[in-house]
Amino acid sequence: MRIENAECIQLTKGLIRFLQDSPTSFHAVANIAGILREAGFTELHEGEKWELKKNGSYFVTRNQSSILSFRIPAGTCGGYQIMASHSDSPSFKIKENPEMEAENHYVKLNVEKYGGMLCAPWFDRPLSIAGRLVVRTADGLQTKLVNVDRDLVMIPNLAIHMNRQVNDGYDYNAQSDMLPLYGGEAAAGTLMKTIAQSAGVAEEDILGHDLYLYNRMKGSVWGAGEEFFSCGRIDDLQCAFGSLEGFLAGGNAHSVSVHAVLDNEEVGSTTKQGAASTFLLDTLKRLNTALGRTEEQYLTALASSFMVSADNAHGVHPNYTDKADPTNRPYLNGGIVIKFNATQKYTTDAVSAAVFRSVCEKADVPVQTFTNRSDMAGGS
Ligand code: ZN
C-alpha cells in the first residue's frame, strides 16, 4: 500500500513531534508508554506477578529507558514476531560536579561523550539539558524525568583567526574542546538549582542524575518538493516510531507480536537494559509461563520466531558518492534498506532477507540493499 505525499508529510510531522518530545532515551520510553496506554495496553512490572490473557496487549519497561510491548493472539499462538530498535542516541553526558569556573568570568560544564558522534554539529548552536533524576521523598527514592526545555548552553567554536588550520581537519579533544558554556560568573553554583526547578524538586533532594545535552534545533521537512526531512536523534528513534506505528496498526492471529525499543546500543548494548541483557529473554519466558506453557513449548515457539533489527542505513552521499559500495547504493526515499555484512555485523542472511523481501512485496514497499565497501568498516 503506497501512501500519498500528503499522508507522508503528516506522518513525518508526527515523527518530528515524537523526536522533539524525546530528548533522551528516558523521554522516548515515557512517550512510547503513553502511546501504548492510549491504545489500551496494560503496563506490567518486572517486580510483580504477571497475569496475562489471550487477546491481551501489554508493555513492560526496564530502567525507564528500554520498553517491550506485546500482543497475545486470541487463538493458539506459534512464535514471536519481533521488531527491535534502540532508544538512545549519541550525546554528551553531564559529569558529577559539572561546574567549572573559567577565568573568573565564565562557568562551563564538565561533560563526557556518550556514543560515537560527529563533533562538529554540536558547536555554535543552542543546546539544553534533559534526563533523569533520582530524588529523596517521604516515600523513599523516586525517579523524575527532567527537561530544562530552553536554550541553556552552547559549545562555542574557536574563531578561524585563532585556528587557521581548522578547515584542514581537526582532532577535537573531548576534555578541552567540547565543554559547553553555561553562564557568566554569576551562574556559579546554579546549575543543579536550574535542573531542580525544571523538575519541580528541591535541589538538596537530588541524590543521583543521568543528564545529557541535546540539540535544540527543530526538525524540518525541506527540499524543492519537501522530499527530505532532518532532525536530531533519527538514529534510532525514527525506527522506534515507525515500527510502533506498524505494530499498532498491524495484527497477527497466530503469533505474539513484540515491539522492542532498547537502550545503550550506542555504547555496545551490554547494560542491564540493553539488547545483550536478559530483558527480552526474561519477558518472552514470563509470557510463556503466564500462558501456562511448558519449556518445550517455549523453545518450539522460539524456533518459529523472526526478529527484525531496525536501525538507520547510510544513503549515498551526493558529495561523497565513492564512499558507497559499487553495487549496493541506497538513495533517500528509495525504500527500506536491508543491510548485509559477510562477517555478520549485520545478521541478514539469505533466509532472513527473503522473508523480509516477501513481507515488503506483500505491502508494496520498495526495498534497497546496503553493504559497506569491502575496504571500509561500518557499524554493527
Ligand atoms: Zn543506530
Write the layout of secondary structure elements.
Blueprint lengths: L4 H16 L4 H14 L3 E3 L12 E6 L3 E6 L8 E7 L4 E12 L3 E9 L12 E11 L2 E8 L33 E4 L6 H9 L6 E10 L4 E3 L5 E3 L3 H16 L6 E7 L16 H12 L4 H9 L2 E4 L26 E4 L10 H13 L4 E4 L10
Parallel strand pairs: 1-2, 4-13, 4-14, 15-16
Antiparallel strand pairs: 2-3, 3-13, 5-6, 6-9, 7-8, 7-10, 11-12
Bound molecules: zinc ion (ZN).
3D architecture notes:
By secondary structure, this protein is α/β, with parallel strands linked by helices. The protein has helices at 5-20, 25-38, 191-199, 234-249, 279-290, 295-303, 350-362; strands spanning 42-44, 57-62, 66-71, 80-86, 91-102, 106-114, 127-137, 140-147, 181-184, 206-215, 220-222, 228-230, 256-262, 306-309, 336-339, 367-370. It has a 6-stranded mixed β-sheet, with helices on both faces. A 3-stranded antiparallel β-sheet has the order 5-6-9, with no helix packed on it. Strand 11 and strand 12 form a beta hairpin. Residues 86, 235-236, 265, 311-312 line the site of zinc ion.
